[in-house]
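We close this part of the discussion by returning to an individual protein. The encoding preserves chain order, so positions in sequence and tokens coincide. The sequence in question and its structure tokens are set out directly beneath this paragraph:

===
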Amino acid sequence: MDGQPVKESVNGIELLDITGYKIGIFHGHGQGKSMPERAYDRFKDELYQEQGFMLNPGSPTNKRKERWYSFLLLELSEKEIHAQLKFYLP
């Protein structure tokens, strides 16, 4: 889990509108359901009325049980979406 300074500097939930795309950002904390289920429940009314999908970028600061650290590079234009999941070891 992230320390208090990180939690205070990052909003746990955001809904952005960029280049006509709605993007929900969800930090994933919670209990009782999986992170994808919690994200879906939070954004289902705003994002899933049309085509929607979820991407989990992992973590650039804590690989948890994964083999690598990771982050998502998302490029948006009016015609295309390019998503790259980047993996690395320091």
Observations:
- The chain is about 20% helix and 30% strand.
- Residues 35-47 form the longest helix (13 residues).
